[in-house]
Amino acid sequence: MYASREDIGYDFGEDSKVGSKPTKPNPNIDGGWAWMIVFSSFLVHILIMGSQMALGILNMEWLEEFNQSRGLTAWISSLSMGITLIVGPFIGLFISMCGCRMTAIIGGVLNALGWILSAYASNVHYLFLTFGVTAGIGSGMVYLPAVVMVGQYFQKRRALAQGLSTTGTGFGTFLMTALLKYLCAEFGWRNAMFIQGAISLNLCVCGALMRPLSPKGLREKYVVRSDSEENRTKVLSHSTETIKSNGVLGEEPEKKEEAANEEVLGSVQHIEIGGKSGSGRSMYGLRLFKTVSQLTVTVRKGFALWYSSYFGAASLFTNRVFVAFIIWALFAYSSFVIPFIHLPEIVKQYNLSRQDNVFPLTSIIAIVHIFGKVILGIISDLPCISTWNVFLMANFTLVICILTLPLMQTYVGLAVVCALIGFSSGYFSLMPVVTEDLVGTKHLANAYGIIISANGISALFGPPFAGWIYDITQKYDFSFYIAGLLYMVGIIFLLIQPCIEKKQPGEKSTEEAQV
User: Fold this and answer.
1) Tens of pLDDT along 1-16?
2) CA 135 – CA 111 distance, rounded (Å)
3) Is 287 contained in some domain?
4) Is the separation of the CB atoms in 430 and 372 below 8 Å?
5) Is 245 inside any structural domain?
6) I need a labelling partner for 170 at 20 to 30 A (CA). Which of 15, 252, 467, 512 fits?
7) Is residue 244 part of a domain?
8) What contacts 37, CB < 8 A, 6 or more positions away?
9) What is the DSSP letter of 291?
10) Boundaries of domain holding 498
11) How confident is residue 499, by pLDDT bands cut at 50, 70 and 90?
12) Within a domain: residue 262?
């Protein structure tokens, strides 16, 4: 009736602290079922991120169908992309209560429902709700568990596993662009979205593969329902240490809450034992009350852990470089998303549709993006190379490509620029490393969640802004110029912070070097 702590994925310390016997290392760590988790996450990236990067095909269909402005129509794709990332910290609340598997399955159903309902859209505002919000939230509910589960199953090979799973974005963009283009040409965009909704139901299968590391029955070794003072003290001190390590909730309030929770469960159990001689209806009521009590305790604990994980990160904002990193993230992701949404229409305006049908420009970005992730990762791992410098150089290259793209009006010129965009955007694989260097391992999860949310805001407003500029100037040139300049402002914020001089991200500290 409730999620186990293994399924939730939080670290509650060693078993010895709560009076249970030590267990052997799980054979699925870095092997076994762990590779099925990587395969599941790879498929999730194909079905979610790949589909979102191919929305430029549907954006053209929506422009012709509803005859609305480009700025208004672009909100459909932006809502779906932005909400997928923005809701990440809030999806953590569902994971803490239901576990990654159940959250992903529900998200798969919600995502498919959003696609299917969008096939019956009568206007763009209908698509805002069905595709932008519904499918966007569903995507977020699958995307976050896919990333979290890979981190849970891998320790020594975590970087390799995350790299392999995220390459699904590039493969997905290439495959989904071709698939949506074919479906729209053969069956129309409405039937294409209906078919895509059916395909998205495979996200439920991906969620079903995300089984927890340990059976749910093992939760009993963490929760001691005995009324003995010794066992209750162990549980209280262990839970207090866990919450206190997050730096948010005080020790005394947690002790009172834990004591109240254990008292409720203990009293219910006592009544149940004493009432065995009562009627069957009374026993059913007591068991129902006990189940509700257990569920309430689980929800309260899950909410406390979620709150401490995200809203307990206020100290992160005292790091000036991290604040500059957030500002950078607010401008950076839109420069990567805008080409995917508006390139198909730019190609149509330049009368390059015949060449683009043979090999779409968005597919070029997607394929080279895969190699960019791998190559930039290998370069940054070299002992003589700073990850921070590789990260900045890739960003500078991407800015130059965004600013020069409007100058290219031939297919070959656009293809070269798109290839450079795909390669330089491979810095996405370096973002977790750079974030860890800025805030440390302890705050990595909280900090990276904030960065992802900032990227979501960037994806939310970027494409509509580009469409709005086009509606005013009748050109996409100024959209790319403004996006590139804002992107450059974000990079400048990273360069002018004095904290960078104290410790260069990507370089090991003296203590780390000694270890």
Assistant:
1) 333 333 333 333 333 3
2) 4
3) no
4) no
5) no
6) 467
7) no
8) 149, 150, 153, 161, 209, 210
9) H
10) 32-212+313-502
11) very low
12) no
